[in-house]
Amino acid sequence: MQKQTNVRAASQKSVRLRGKRSPAPTAPQKLKLLVTIVGRNKAEFYMDLLQSMEINIQLSMLGHGTANTQMLHLLGLSDSDKAVIFSVVREDRAKETLALLGQKFQTVRGGKGIAYTIPLKSVVGVAIYRFLCDNRMPMKEET
Fold first, then answer.
1. Per-residue pLDDT tens digits for 53-75
2. Domains and CATH numbers, the chain
3. Are 97 and 55 in contact (CB under 8 A)?
4. Cα gap 120→34, rounded to integer Å
5. Helix 91-107 crosses helix 43-52 at what angle (to 10 degrees)?
6. Which of 101, 120, 96, 138 is closest to 29 using CA atoms?
7. 114 backbone dihedrals φ, ψ, rounded to 5°
């Protein structure tokens, strides 16, 4: 009985010590895929803008709209050649990024576009996750 009590006391003591050494673990930042569709002539401008918002990775692809010329004229669009930019943004920065993009869509001449986010459910690898969420802290080794 005495031995069992000593083991229990020792385990409680080690739990208390572990709690003092390291801070409580925090939940990882959730990530979202940001899709931005703009005219091809403005793709570099928007990619630079997104990079200034601490977005580490962007992929630009060429796109072509299917709207006819009457619909393009009605919507105030000049052509159907587009660039589709895929980016990964932290969830806590998504609203701020979308608001900035919306502002630029309204104020930049010829810079109209569409932007939306899609939640990401998983990412493979801690190093990849840290790169995507712009966490440049060195990885701690578990002891």
1. 888 888 999 887 766 777 767 76
2. 31-132 (3.30.70.120)
3. yes
4. 10
5. 140
6. 120
7. -130, 140
Q: Residue 139: CB partners within 8 Å, gap ≥ 6? A: 126, 127, 130
Residue 64 neighbours by CB distance under 10 Å: 9
- Tokens 């990530």 -> residue: 31
Q: What value does the CA radius of gyration of the chain take, rounded to a whole number of Å?
A: 24
DSSP string, 1-41: -HHHHHHHHHHHHHHHHHHHHSPPP-PPPPEEEEEEEEEGG
The enclosing H or E element of 107 equals helix 91-107
128-134: long-range contacts (C-beta < 8 A, 24 or more apart)? 129/28, 129/31, 131/56, 131/57, 132/31, 132/56, 132/57, 132/88, 133/28, 133/29, 133/31, 133/90, 134/54, 134/55, 134/56, 134/90
Query: What does the alpha-carbon distance between residue 132 and residue 55 come to, in Å, rounded to a whole number?
Result: 8
With 0.85 as the threshold, say if the pTM is over it. no
CA distance 104 to 113: 9
